[in-house]
Amino acid sequence: MSTNQSNIWKAGTIVPLAIFLLFILVPVWGHVTDHTFYVAYFARILIYAIAVVALNLALGFGGLVSLGHALFMGLGAYSVALPAFYGIDNGWIHLFICLFSCGVAGLITGAISLRTSGIGFIMITLAFAQMGYFLFVSLKQYGGDDGTSISNTSQFFGLDLGGVYQVYIVSLILLVLATWWTARLRVAPFGMVLRGARQNARRVRAVGFPANHYLLASYVLSAMLCGVAGLLLANLNAFASPSTLSWIISGDLVVMLVLGGIGTVFGPMLGALAFLGLEEILKMFTDHWLAVFGLVIVFIGLLGKAGIAGFLDSFSRRKAGAAQGGVKQAKGAKA
User: Does this model's pTM top 0.85?
Assistant: First the structure.
C-alpha cells in the first residue's frame, strides 16, 4: 500500500470524514423527524467551526495568538443587522460590507499588532476587540447592549438565509471548502512560509521572504473568513448583539482550536464539535456543568497541542507500528 493510500485510511482522516457524512445526514433526519432544533444546533457548530478554521490560519499556521477574533465575528453579524435595520435584505450587500469591514479592520489591527509579539500581541488584539464591543454597546439606536433583531435576513438570488435548513446547508458547504482549502494551504508555498515564520521568522527573512507581510496577509484572510461566520450566525439567530464581540467568544474559539488540534486540517471541526457538544451534553446532567467541563478541557489539553486530531493520528501510528511488529515476528518465526 502506498503512503498516500495509508494516509487516506488512517483514523485521523476516517473519523473526520465520517463526521462530515453525519453532518450531511442531519438535515435529512431533521426533516423526517421534524426536529428543527437539532438542525439549528448543528448549524451553530458548523458556523463556529468556520470561525475556528479562520483562527487556525492565523494561530495554527502563523503562530499569531489572537484574542480579538470576536471583533470580526461581531462585524460580520452587524453587517447583516445594520443594513436590515434600514430594510436592506440583499445578501450580496451584506457580504460585501462583511468582507470589506473585516478586511479593513484586520489590516489595521493586524499591522499594529504585528509590531509586537507574544503577550503584547495577545493584549493588543484583545484591546481592539473590546473597543469594538464598547462601540456597538454605545449604539443605542440599534439596541445597544440588548442587541437588535433582524427581520430582513440575507437574500441571495431568492435563497433566504433566514431559514434554518438554508443556513445549515450553506454553512456545511463553506466548512467543507474551508477545510479543503486548509489542506491545500499546508503544502502550498504560502502556507509553508507561514509555518516557517511561526517556527523562526528571522530565518524566513534571511532567505528572502518578508515574514511580516505573509503574517499580515494571513491575519486579514483570517479576519474575513471569521466575519463570514458572524454573518451566518446573525442569519441563524435573526439577531445581533455586542456580546458576539466579547473576549469570551475569542477565548472560546482559541479553546476549540486547542481541543481540535492547532495547525491541523480537521482540528477546527473536531474542536467545535467537542466543545459545543460537551457543553450541551453536560447541561443535561448537572447545573454545575462548567466545573466538569473545565476538567474535561484540561484532560484533552494534556493530549498536547495536536489535540483530538493529533490523538487520532497517534492512534493510527501505534496501530500501524503494532501491525509491523507482528509481521516482523512472523517473519522471524519462519526463519
Answer: yes
